[in-house]
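> @MW can you paste both from yesterday?
MW: sure, first one:
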Amino acid sequence: MFFRINRTLIPVLLLSLLLVLPTGAFAAADSILLVVFGSSEPSARAVYAEVQKQIEAAHPGLPVYTAWTSAHLRGTVKKESSEAPEAVLETMKAKGLKDIAVLPLLVIPGFEYNEIVAAMQAFSAAPGAPKTSLAQPLLTLPEDMEAVAAAVRDGLAASRTRGEAIVLVGHGTHHPAVVAYPAMQYFCTAADARMYVGTIEGRPTRDEALAVLKKDKIAAACLVPLLAIAGDHAKNDIGGDEPDSWKNVFTAAGIKTRVQSAGLAQNPKVLAVWLAHLDAALAELN
């Protein structure tokens, strides 16, 4: 059976549909919160500022706020942008923002990510709280790892010498998310047979990574921070002058070693993975 609707009734029907839909059905994100670890290094903070500019360029019209997760660094570096996520969320709420997408500039979903989740849950539980949506860290899904491995390899193509290995050096963690590093090794090997992964405070350890390079008879290596920014860990633990830095230990083992001074957020193709995660969080609000 077919029914013919009088065209004059269509506007009335559409208005009725709008009235019965949930109030959030057409909600759109009105702001973004970028959450970073923080740094005492001015050059590293400049990278945070550049990431914020990239986000603003990708989402014109949406205000972008920044928060730091490190309480120690918030106390050391007195800046307006170095407030805790909880404090910045309250500021955004006070300014009348209703739909907030949160991008954590983190590499793995470890302890810091758990803290952000807890802060957002507490914030959202309060009466009248804005809607929030949390983006995933960089290395969350297999396709993320695949994209990052390729981006790092391609970013070194112009400067890489013949036979030189690439060693990605991550922070490491005692959180179960430490499994992201051996998983990343799988995708690094798939991208390049001379691409390795190690961590400063987890596994694979420095010595474990070095043992694999020796087994593969690697004569030269470029150490690349598997970190959002090239801050204190990159300058000291990886490329420092102390005898136990990665650079000096590898050099002492007979491997010609150089250090890339840039963090992952300075690689446009890697940053694109983070921004894609932000887009997904924005889509949840939209």
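MW: second:
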Amino acid sequence: MTAVLPMVKLRALVGSFALVAVLSVGVACAQELPAPAESSDRATLMALYNATDGSNWANNTNWLSDRPLGEWHGITTGADGRVTELNLPDNQLSGSIPPHLGGLTHLLIVHLGNDFGACDSGGCEPSSATANRLSGEIPSELGNLSNLQSLNLNYNQLSEGIPSQLGNLPNLRSLDLFGNPLGGAIPSQLGDLANLRELDLGYSQLTGSIPSELGGLTILERLELSGNQLSGGMSPELGNLDNLQALDLSENQLSGGMSPELGNLANLQGLSLSWNQLSGEMPRELGNLVNLNRLDLSRNQLSGEMPRELGSLVNLKSLGISDNQLSGEISPELGNLVNLVVLALRAIAFQIILKIGLKCCHDLIV
């Protein structure tokens, strides 16, 4: 009996080693297989590749391979292997954006636009020979990307409007849809993007009025809505954008008077309202914009005298007020604009220079 016991113990010991070995192999295999979440991201990227003619991209290095996703061209992943950045600008993507992209819930940055382009009355065209030319709609599923901080789809051929679901992106800091024939109105839901700093919807064939809800974007620094067909009056709520540095509403169909609330934008450096149908007098409150270096109000229907308060804009370098219906005497206070180098007043420019004194005009271009 005493001789049997060691054998039983030995068999038990061998069995234990065998069990540990099996478990170790199992763990090793599990580590080699992609996690379910990473596999889901991989499948989503494959759907993007197939939907946008990936075989003809300018650069598709490692796409559809078994390499880690972070080694696929334009993809950045976090420590957990999940996709955090999708950067494929100027890469010859064509076709439509698949709705599957809304499943990449760890995304922080999406750049499927183009870095350079130009616009005229006929529309916008990217400059690069390898430009992206995405078409169709912007999937509403992108509103599921709750971690997204930057979305850039500029200079493509996207249409069918701006989905209101983009207003569900609480961490979004930059939204750039410039140069797409989107059409439709600006969704009021964009006013819910409390962390937004840049909103660029220029040259997008947008119609309707500027939503008053945009006045709730209190940390916004840049608002670009030029080159659309926006109509109606200027929303006084825009005066709530305390951190705004650049406001461009030019080349629209805005009418009525200029909002005196614009004078509340103490950090504003550039203001362009040209090529609209604005009427009435220039508000004296514009004199509060002491950081302004560019002011363009040309090609409107403004009337009355130039406010003497404009003489407080000592940082102003460019002033455009041509093709309006301004009249009356030129205030001598405008002679305080010692940094002015561009003064667009057309035929009466030289008369005004003499009126306000040459001290403002040592490098003046008329």
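> thanks! Confidence is low (pLDDT under 50) at residues 1-33, 347-351.
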